[in-house]
Amino acid sequence: MMIKKLALVVALTIPIQSLSEEYKTVYEDVSSYKKGEPDWYQDHRLNKAYIEQSKVKLSVFLEAWSEISTSHTTHQKSEFPKVFRHAYEIFEDFYQPHNLERIGDPEWGTKQFSKVSYFVVQSKVNVIVTNNLVKDKFGNNSSPTILDATMNNFRPQIKGNIKALFLDDYHSLIIDKFLGQEEIPAGHAGIMSTSKAVGESQKRQDFLNQFLKIYHGHWGGWILETDPTVTKINFNKKYDRAVVYFSLVYEGGEAVYERKNNKWVLIKSELTWIT
User: Fold this and answer.
1) Whether 236 contacts 131, CB under 8 Å
2) How many CB atoms lie within 10 A of CB 103?
3) Residue 221 — left, alpha, or beta (φ > 0 → left; ψ -120 to 50 → alpha)?
4) What are the tens digits of pLDDT across the range 67-124?
5) 88-102, 192-206, 261-275, range with the lowest pLDDT
6) What phi, psi does 128 have (nearest 5°)?
7) Beta strand 118-121 pairing with 251-260
8) What does the DSSP assignment read for the chain?
9) Is the Cβ–Cβ distance between 252 and 272 less than 8 Å?
10) 3, 162, 229, 268: least CB-packed within 10 angstroms?
11) pLDDT score recorded for residue 30
12) First and final CA of the chain: distance in angstroms?
């Protein structure tokens, strides 16, 4: 079932200790996920879990999200356009948050997602096809573009035993509003200091991070996805070379893939920029 984004979403934005008992009763207890349930249930699950500081109820919210986060099957993917089939194959090999050392040596270390219980996975990817890709060259490609498209409702298979939570618009809205915007700006402690969540927003971030790994954005806002996030996959027109452009918290880079023996193989990857 696809959950729709509703105007019913309400977020708590004031400190929990100052909430009146009457206001706390706005959020109801909701049972475990049932197919066809009302869309507003997830908003109530999350906020009720936080009001009661219940790790068990937070897990019920995440499990309900997991229930609707089904990956596309091999058969479904076989019916996609050629460029999308190739993009799925590359992403499903590239996306390994528990194995970051294969794509670089990140600022936050290679074990930053080693303790998460769920991966929050992006739900769209941009793909382009150009005439050529310069061999072993990183950076943006200047060859003429043949195709430029976005895969929406992106639902890849995920390696390993960690459950995927696909970040649809509905859950993105709930979590953004739940976390709020209490922060201190970038540069508060010097030119290199990042924006930082404080107060109630920091408490809510810590609450979710009992199971997830949500970062506060360098310039503000939130990084909800479990990185690496693929921003673009660039193929050549022969579909035998591709460059994956990705971000990893406050940095990012490119990975080169080649088609060998009817399979996409990672040739090399580098982190090439940092904010």
Assistant:
1) yes
2) 23
3) left
4) 999 999 999 999 999 999 999 999 999 999 999 999 999 988 999 999 999 999 999 9
5) 192-206
6) -135, 155
7) unpaired
8) -PPPP-TT-----S-GGG--HHHHTTSPP--S--TT--TTHHHHHHHHHHHTT-HHHHHHHHHHHHHT-PPPPHHHHHTS-HHHHHHHHHHHHH--TT-GGGT---TT-TTTTTT-SEEEE-S-EEEEEES---TT--S---SPEEEEEEE-S-----SSSPEEEE--HHHHHHHHHHH---EE-TTBTBTTPPPEE-HHHHHHHHHHTTT--PEEPTTSSEE-S-SPEEEEEEEETTSSEEEEEEEETTEEEEEEEEEETTEEEEEEEEEEEE-
9) yes
10) 268
11) 87
12) 38
Measured distance CA(43)–CA(40) in Å, rounded: 5
How far apart are alpha carbons 90 and 256 in whole angstroms?
Answer: 10
Residue appearing with tokens 């990975």: 255
User: Number of C-alpha atoms within 13 angstroms, CB side, residue 6?
Assistant: 13
- pLDDT at site 3: 38
Token couple for 200 = 């109630």
Angle at 117 between CA 126 and CA 223, to 5 degrees: 40
Residue indicated by tokens 């739940």:
178
Query: CA nearest 234: which of 156, 155, 153, 149?
Result: 149
Total residue length of the chain: 275
Task: Write down the residue that tokens 């270390």 correspond to.
Answer: 109
User: Residue 116 has which token pair?
Assistant: 């998460």
State both tokens at 244: 């994956």
